[in-house]
Structure of WDR64 protein:
Amino acid sequence: ALELIDFKNALEQFQNLVEKMIIQKTKESADLYTKDDDEVDYEKFYTTTHKLFGPAVKDQNVQAFFRKIMSNPNERPEWLEIFGCFTEESSDMSSPSKESMVLLVSEKQQFTHSVVKRKDVIKGIVKVPLLHFTVTASQKGVLTVFSKKSYFSYSFYFHQDTTWISGCDYLPNLKYVVAVAESTIILWDYKSNESRSDGFVIKPMKNCLLCVCTVTVADDLTQDTILMGDDKGYVYLLTVTSDDFIMKQSKAEKESQFKVLDSESFNIPKRKLHDDWVGKVKYFSALKRFGSCSTDSINSFVLDDIKRLEDHLPVKEFSVPKGVNAFTYCGKAKVIVTGG
């Protein structure tokens, strides 16, 4: 509450400063202004603003705000703009760089982990808004869960000789992190505090898995459904239940602390939708459809019901020269955008 009061006081002083600048500039334009010691120039505006808000404001935003007032005092900028937040785009806005046209985040937090190896890269990053989670997977096998709410992070290194992880997602019902690595499906129980490398490995898969996502449709809290794409153009549908872990666990062999489950014991429908690598799979709850894309120029993008993976009915697809590498859906505009 005290911080809120302090900010309100600082904001009130800032707005008074802006009003003073506008009056000063208006008088200057009408040749009615006489310079005195109380004049607000850029140096005084810069110093006062930083004194009021501290490091929360950046130099380029202070400069852009000052220039905007000086160029057109009749069109007052919103106070949010001093923090780099623009409520609307304006062709009249004067700015030192194009960077000022976007939302600038003044506070960043960097996470580093000793387990991350040199020359490693992030291959997947997924936000879980309901739990304030962010899940990441690196190419060389580091899976991490970051929690914004409680500021903790869990990581483990999935040891392998040549296998590279190519994607990850979060299973909201079973509360596992899922990742795919060539012929392997990894299910990590990040909640295990005693051993951070508890989980299951489903293998072998016939082809190399390249991407994975969760299908959020079922209300059954005991299961999750996963979509995967491989390097031969196939899209897979795998439903995992809590019973699978219990029933198949006794037959599983040990690999480190991950229990290996035979892929043959699962029902995994698949269908060849593309003639090249599947670059991305995604399920859109609003459309009740899944999408998959490929660099295939003929069957570049598919958008249809997940039931099409279990039958042989025609699918809705379209072609793009040299294929599609990425896609997304905007519910507000009701459009799907692809990038090739």
Residues 141 and 160 are 8 Å apart (CA to CA).
